[in-house]
Amino acid sequence: MLRSMKITYAFDLQGFPAGYSLYVTLLLGICIPLLAIAQEPPRPEIDINQFIAELFPVPPDDSEELYEALLQLYASPLDLNIATPDDLAATFILNEEQLRAFFDYRAKAGALLSLYELQAIPGFDIYTIRKLLPFVTISTKAVSIQEALKNPGQHFLMIRSGKLIERQKGFAPLDSNSNSVTRYQGSPFNGYLRYRNARSGAYSIGITLEKDSGEEIWHWNARKQIFGIDYTSFHAQILHRGRLKSLIIGDFQMQAGQGMITGAGFSLGKGSEVIRTVYRSTTGLKPYTSTTEANFFRGVAASWSITTRTDLTILISKTKRDATQEPDSIYSGITTSLPITGYHRTPSEIEKHHILREQNMGMHFVHRFSSQKGQIGLTMLHTIYNSYIRKRDLPYNRYEFSGKQNLIAGLHGDYRWQNMRFFGETAISKSGGTGAIGGMIASIGRRVDISVMARHYARDFHTFYGNPISEATRPINERGAYTGVRWSPSRKWQWSAYFDYFRFPWLKYQVDKPSRGFDYFLHLLWKSSKRLNGYLLFHEKHKQVNDPAAESNAPSLNWSVKRTAMFNIDYEIPLKCAFRTRLQYGGLKNKPSKGSNGLTIVQDVTWHLSKLEISARAAFFKTDDYDSRQYVYEKDMLYAFSIPAYYNTGTRHYLMLRYAVTKQLKIWLRWSQTRYSDIEKISSGLNEIDGNKRSEAKLQVMYQF
Fold first, then answer.
1. Where are the domains of the chain?
2. Element (H, E) at 64
């Protein structure tokens, strides 16, 4: 595909006289309308797992949320003729210089007529365009809902199921010699169904159903929002109908500002993309289609254009949350925790299922400056529970949220000047706790990009749907400063690094004193050609943790050092085969202990035949214990995500087949197995397997209408 694009008009005008540049520009002005009449370049099918692995070689804690956000963007690609700087920045593909060049080009040349036209934009090389193509499209005119429904961009039904081959303890008969007195209530099969009917920029309708292994196949309790299958999600959205930018009913998320109050989608932290991850894009309302059974709104939301540059969004949500509740002498009952695992397999887990009612009312107001220079916005969110929430009476919980309601409000803004973007957000919660984040991203010529960011989250700052960049899993009790740099001396070489310093002014779980830490990251990327590339990575994190030898009444802290080193090389013959080799080392040392170390060697192979794609892996791993476990991305079925933990000593392999029966019907089969050489039982509790191997089989069928 891109080979023909390069032959057509992939020109580098640096060093040529102005007259030649004018000639080429005139030639493109004649050719591009003709190309627009011709067929657009085919939209490539993307391997989301590989895309994420390139951004975050060391998997982040919330990888599944990133996976779903990328799938949302892939399912509803951006229309380049109406996309905002925040929309394009959210892809993590374009730097500040490329963003400025794109919008300068669009302002001068008008609406794009073809995706081929991207090659006429200064700074857009073939490598960048190839990465961008799966996530963008071009619409030459607006269409009515009726016309859009007749010609959807995406319309499919997908069904998936699988199970572990070996029997887990939770599915075995009760044993009188065992301390366990319960078993899983449902079958060992898991189930998943997804239906989607959408057209980018016009509408989206979707249903997601999921049953985890061990959960009952059918249970109906409308009062608890349990509609047959354990987890049910639905949304219907219309877009760009005059002043109505978006109207969504059902399950949704919202991304505004730097994610201090409402942070969804790409709200992830530190990775190999050391520059753009510090900035959060204001992408507004998005359908929620993930199987993560928490942290989303359920209700109705709408966004209107008050003027051409000013938008107002209102949301109302009523949903049920899983909760752990206990009796209390003052209140009829209190909620001590909000589990987010989504598992409802045993009587105790089922007892917590959707017993807490949560209501949210929110507002977001944003005004964009002229010439795509930036924006300023106001966000408010009011959350009400029907049960008093109070965490267990422990020292590290002293400043955690307690009560039945929380109000949080904040201001955010960003401004672009030449190749620099300044951004920030500040917020205050009902408790009086404040949060603030501010920073800058800059492109220094074509070769160097830098990012700087500082953050402050008070010990009593309470945000339930916020997800700004932080070291901890939640933005509370933290101060930090981050700086990143990327240097691209040539198209073949790229060097990236970041350094992050953080402090926790109050106690944390298993850290009984105020603590601090830092981490740094080095990444060297080599792109020999479109077929061959590789990278080297080193990441080291230092954090203070409790000294196990200290007295309980006189806690002291030791340093914990976690290291990851990785070498990865990829070779691909387009449309034929691909090979990937990875060597990965990980170690954890809590001074003055000896520490734990682990090594993993992975070989992946993919073959493309006429209708069949075959993917396989063979991996060997050896770790001292679970502390030095290794996480490695695996290729999985479409809309499935897999990052298993490799620990102890053993091998891991999988084989996956994808067969296109017809243009409309595709089938996936996947078998995987982990075999250990030094243990006789795998896992513990009800997940325990008697033996040294763990195997899984999965089947997925997708029909595209």
1. 2-141, 238-468
2. helix 63-75
